[in-house]
Amino acid sequence: MRQSRTLIPTLKETPADADIASHQWLLRAGYIRQNFSGVYSFLPLGKKVLDKIEQVVREEMDKVGANEVLMPALQSADLWRESGRWDKMGPELMRLNDRHEREFVLGPTHEEVATSMIRDEVKSYKKLPLTLYQIQTKFRDERRPRFGLLRGREFIMKDAYSFHDSEQSLEESYQTMYQAYTQIFTRLGLNFRAVIADSGAMGGKDTHEFMALSQVGEDTIAFSDQSDYAANIEMAEVLDCYSFSEQEAKPLELVDTPNQKTMQQVADYLGHALDAGMKSLLYQIDDAFVLVVTRGDHEVNEIKLKNHFAASKVELADEKVSGELLQAGFGSLGPIDVPAEVKVVCDLAVRAMANVTCGANQDDKHYVNVNPKRDLVNVEYADLRFIKAGDPSPDGKGTIEFAEGIEIGQVFKLGSFYAEQLGATYLNDQGKSETMLMGCYGVGVSRTLAAIVEQHHDDKGIVWPVQVAPYQIHLLVLNSKKEEQVQLGEQIYHQLTSAGYDVLYDDRKERAGIKFADSDLIGIPYRVTVGKQADDGIVECKVRMTGEQSERHFKEIIPYLERSLNPN
Questions:
Q1: Which of 235, 336, 545, 566 has its CA 20 to 30 A from that of 218?
Q2: CA of 150: how far to CAs of 142, 199, 263, in Å?
Q3: Which family does it belong to (predicted)?
Q4: pLDDT tens for each residue of 10-23
Q5: pLDDT at residue 102 above 70?
Q6: What is the pLDDT of residue 153?
Q7: What angle do CA 311, 237, 226 make, to 5 degrees?
Q8: CB-hemisphere CA count at 13 Å for 464?
Q9: Residue 204 scores a pLDDT above 90
Q10: Within 13 Å of residue 44, how many CA atoms lie on the same side as its CB?
Q11: Nearest-CA neighbor of 74 among 101, 42, 45, 106?
Q12: DSSP 466
């Protein structure tokens, strides 16, 4: 492609609203342009990278026997009501009405459509297992789009759905897809980890997220320093290996704590460490109220809380409700003498505490010398807190460390949820009707593009891995007024394209400095520069990733590229 005939609008300055590296470089190098908040156009370079990513995804999906389809982005609201997600998805669901006031959804995902299609077309176990996938634009009404392609209102995703007649078949497909995703992200040149995750609004139980490690990741990964264990921090189990105090239990005592509202204020006022107090928070979990108790230095993990109660909704109760139910405001709540209509659940760490402090359910008063075994009645214990750095790894190997990550893919075992809701059944080998089991597997294609840039850039621009670069070679003619340079540039361009190389040919009438700067910005892996030695057939070759430079006769370019692109 001649650069004079394509659209690559590079920018000298970083746009003010571009917060992270991928957003900055993709804008500056002319890969994307924002249409409005959370919605972007992919310009020619961006579209070529998307195509390269999609090709890798298609190749790996085809290897595992998945069938490519294309389902509509516009979906009937009736399907979403059947599945129960019309209300569950909340305001992020893009909803619209047609001229007849019929309700529709712009799909953020396609479980409902895929399930209804298989429900109508597959009637026998002989057609199972079956996996369908598509690569398509999705929609999500983000309250605050940010980070460029990482969190937008419109994005490109590969979503796949598998249908099964047994748990064993579902497990086999899950593991096959897990390995396919590992291969996809390896081929795309990403540093990533597969982590245990929460299925959220997708439903189902078993799931792994594939996370590209990044300093600007929106998720925190907890991983072992001595094994391959990794989990989203929301899902990392905390082992019940607390050491019980050997202190002799002291008499329970009620004390005044005037105007001491926070755990730290109470600890300072009473002169003890933060971990010598119990923190109590009142939650509304679906239609019930639950007092959740942790050690003072620990934080409640609401995902664990939601999963513990198999709840649809978990939120903190307001202080008015606290006053009505427990006769005390925030800062003075505690697990002693709690009314029967409020359930009490404590984190596992609480059980090992001794002679500690908790709120007394009286404003500005606390109990001291609380001993859970003696003083807490009708309570249950569960793992309800966030894991912390230095905690034992859940697999028993090493301790936990943290890293940030960008979610680029996820695999789910959906089980029978959508099939039951939408009536997807089949006849088994006995002629009896059975409910299908399902798996769901997603790759964020546009997010993956941004994640690659987050990991592959320097202070001059993007540094694309060869396998996803928009072009393999950037050919520069430095002085378009010099006939010998133009002639050699044209000769090399035809030589390379005839040999099957993907070349961006900078034939613009621009200064050499602009061409070099744009080339570094764009980040194509290999650069061939035709300059002052054109009369002798000598060109400069440069590797973008390493900065390695060498001078070669133009007839040596193809052997050089063959060795570089195919080192084995």
A1: 545
A2: 12, 19, 36
A3: Belongs to the class-II aminoacyl-tRNA synthetase family. ProS type 1 subfamily.
A4: 999 999 889 899 99
A5: yes
A6: 96
A7: 155
A8: 31
A9: no
A10: 13
A11: 106
A12: G
* Integer angstrom CA distances of residue 45 from 8, 42, 49, 287, 499: 7, 8, 7, 52, 22
Domain ranges within the chain, ordered by starting residue: 16-236+402-453, 253-382, 471-565
* DSSP type of residue 151: B
**In this structure, how many other beta carbons lie within 10 angstroms of the beta carbon of residue 9?**
11
349-394 pLDDT tens trace? 999 999 999 999 999 999 999 999 999 999 999 999 999 999 999 9
Condensed to tens digits (0 to 9), the pLDDT of residues 485-513 reads 999 999 999 999 999 999 999 999 999 99
Q: Are 421 and 83 in contact (CB under 8 A)?
A: yes
The fourth-level CATH superfamily of domain 16-236+402-453 is Bira Bifunctional Protein; Domain 2 (3.30.930.10)
* CA gap 126, 515 in Å, rounded: 60
Inform me whether the pLDDT recorded for 203 exceeds 80: no
**Per-residue confidence (pLDDT) for residue 202, from 0 to 100:** 46
Do the beta carbons of residue 148 and residue 23 sit within 8 Å?
yes
So what CATH class is 253-382? Answer: alpha beta
8 Å CB contact between 158 and 462:
no
Q: Which CATH class is domain 471-565?
A: alpha beta
C-alpha 66/C-alpha 87 separation (Å) is: 31
Q: What are the residues facing 530 on neighbouring strands? A: 477
